[in-house]
Amino acid sequence: MKKNWKFLAVIAIGFASCKGGFKQGDGGMLYNIVDHKSSTTIKEGDFVSLQGVIKTEGDSLLSSTYEMGRPSALMMPKPQYKGDLPSALQMLGEGDSAIVKTNIDTMLKKTPGQQKPPFKGKYIVYYVKIEKVIPKGTSTEAAFQDKIKAYFKGISDKTKAEEPGKIKKYIDDNKLTVTKTASGLNYVITKPGSGANLAAGDTAVISYIGKFTNGKVFETNIKEEAMKNKATYNPMNPYKPARFAVGVKQVIPGWDEGLLMLNKGAKATLVIPSALAYGEQGGGPIAPFTPLVFDIEVIDIVHPNPNAPKPVMPQMQMPTAQQPQAKK
Questions:
Q1: What span, in angstroms and rounded, lies between the C-alpha atoms of 201 and 307?
Q2: What pTM, to 2 d.p., does this model score?
Q3: 103: Cβ–Cβ under 8 A, 6 or more apart, which residues?
Q4: By mean pLDDT, which of 18-22, 95-99, 123-127, 290-294 is the weakest?
Q5: What is the C-alpha separation between 164 and 159, in angstroms, rounded?
Q6: Which residues pair with 242 in a beta bridge?
Q7: Phi, psi of 29 (to 5 degrees)
Q8: Domains of the chain, with CATH numbers?
Q9: How many CA atoms lie within 13 A of 117 on its CB side?
Q10: Where along the chain is composition biased (Low complexity) (predicted)?
Q11: What b/e sequence results for 172-187 when a residue is b if at least 16 CB atoms lie within 10 Å of its CB, and e otherwise?
């Protein structure tokens, strides 16, 4: 989050020092190139990695790569129409930053089927910083892909090296007195429950808040928490307690291990290293080598019914030899 606000502060300072303010582009687009360092610009087909913050004209945050903890990567597409975001990005190069306002009315006219955004205003506002450009140029596809793979490996190695520091900082900043298990899971029971702990095969009924170590909530099944952030709230989500069997690999390893230390009514904070979460591959909004924090409450424990009938394995029909047909 600090990086996000630091970037916005730099953008604001740059904008204030730019006497010309926004310039008029095609299709009602407005743009202000705050920092222009590159002598070359992005071309269609180039690989681009960028940091970006997307806001409404009313300054409500829609999305931020800084909060997600990783830049956004794309192959620069051909602009769909004059005045869209790709057409603005093609005015920039590596190291450049800009504020771009794309016109919503133009977007709706030029992209049939596009739904009107659920917020008021004339523009969608993008704050972008181009981190890396790998030109396609005349490179063979194999050589081009090798350069992209090398870039991602460098990012991955850096993220992996930073992970222990992120975990320690979160624990220190939040003054958590954690217990660390042999696997690397850090946990603290913030409210003891009652009765026996969950056992493998039990069904846990839980409420949870999932966060990155920068404090950004990426998922929760608690409606009140979700509504605090418009970017994560989904009105179609029923927001009810989650139910799943524990200790049988239905969830990430950090949950399986942590929940077995809890009983009904217990609350706990789990600080989970990526090795016990989504690992070096990541998943969805979770980048590779990302440690996660979960605040969990065990609402109920459902034990398996020992008298339930065991599932019957289907009988396999043995193949029979085909009878030879009688000769006519």
A1: 15
A2: 0.76
A3: 27, 28, 29, 83, 122, 123
A4: 18-22
A5: 10
A6: 206
A7: -70, 145
A8: 2-153 (3.10.50.40), 162-302 (3.10.50.40)
A9: 20
A10: 313-328
A11: eeeeeebeeeeebbbb
